[in-house]
Amino acid sequence: MANNLRASMTGSSIDDSSAYGNGKEAAQVVQHSEFDVYGDEENADIQYRTMVWWKAAALMLAETVSLGILSIPSVFGSLGMAAGCILVIGLGAVATLTGYMIGAFKLRYPHVHNMADAGEILAGPIGREVLGASQVIFMIFICGSHVLTGLIAFDTITAGASCSVLWAGVSAIICLVLTIPRTLNGISYLSVASFISIITAVLITMIGVGVAGHKGGVTAKADLSFASGFLAVTDVIFAYAGHVGFFTFIAEMRQPEDFSKALYFLQIADTTLYLIVGVVVYAYAGDNVVSPALGNTGVTLRKVAYGIALPTIMIAGVINGHVCAKLIFVRIFRRNGQASKHMTTHSWTGWLTWTGLCFAIWAIAFVIAEVIPFFNDLLGVISALFASWFTYGISGVFWFHLTPREQRWSTPWQRVKTIFWAGIILMGAFIMVAGLYASIDSIVEGYKAGTFSGPFTCASQALTA
């Protein structure tokens, strides 16, 4: 059944040994590939390929849901209940298919560890550099968003009692320390705490808005400009933007063919959570809904919710920072398919390089979050440039690469798939162009309104409304 499903999606013959569900053959492909990411780990001091599927699912859920869920109620407030539900379900379904295609590409090419490796397969050295740099830039900005959200959380909890720059530094330092473990398995248990944290926080928020009663009606939206409407759409796209780390997650799974289980768990869980939180909070808060969602309760509950949400704010950032550092780390210590001893031993060179990379990533994230006065809108620009492709468009390219030219139009069903995956590529291009327009328009309007704060300001950024 699983073989047939993958064959249906990719257009490849079902005897492909890298198909999902064919555990023994897929494991042999990984074991006997030309080279693997981490080399022979049998006697290694540090073993990376140790995660079982549910740990990978927990990591993916923690990475994806943390900040994504906090923006969903404001999407419903901007677009209305019906459009919000359609977007969450529709984009979630497409994200499931594109995530599956990333898994299929990884199993076909077991040595792929990140988007840079995939880019090399697709377009040689230029593809490697373009996709590698894009992944690093995107993930550093995501780390910056976690620093900023941590700052807002601490400011809200303390009612702005200290300089906000201090809280940004504290957030960055906490994330740096938690990023230090060298394997994803080593931080997978933190993701369980992250999930419990965000679920508890949003439950408190939903209970809080329910107790406060209806503050506004649910209305249909008909007077939105294209820019403001699509800016809300980019929030949903960002909420499903975990695909950028999928290759690295699969590379550290004990059985990569089990990735489909982790993916289905993630997509069912996050889509369900987004719908529940979006519908409930918007139904009670109405047009008064604010983002992040935890700010929709009273002052006391808001502080409690942010205090409970701190673990997920930090841990989700840690996962992104870890994947970013791992990409560069592997790039340094893997040459011509040979893994250096520094990757799998407790050498001074290995640990100093790893720690230095983690420090650099979080230092840059801190500076970006503090220096740029329109950071949230800039994150929209970055998401439009990169999430549009990593979550959607690039998977269409993968499908065309995996499917021989002569098979693409061989049957009516193959033609449907060819048109669908071509549409995914066009979808990525449209999201990029429209998202850039909407985000840049928001930046211009922000400057006109004078709503941007200065760099490294001590002014409180707590939610007080």
**Total beta strands:** 2
Low-confidence stretches: 1-34
Number of helices: 15
Beta strand %: under 5%
Order of helices and strands: HHHHHHHHHHHEEHHHH
The average pLDDT score comes to: 85
Q: Say what the CATH topology is.
A: Amino acid/polyamine transporter I
CATH class label = Mainly Alpha
What structural category do the secondary elements indicate?
mainly alpha
GO molecular function: L-amino acid transmembrane transporter activity
InterPro entries: AA_transpt_TM
Domain Amino acid transporter transmembrane: 51-440
Protein name: Neutral amino acid transporter
Topology:
Elements: H1 2-10, H2 23-31, H3 53-79, H4 81-108, H5 115-157, H6 164-179, H7 184-212, H8 226-239, H9 246-251, H10 259-285, H11 299-333, E1 334-335, E2 338-339, H12 341-344, H13 348-371, H14 375-402, H15 412-449
Antiparallel strand pairs: 1-2
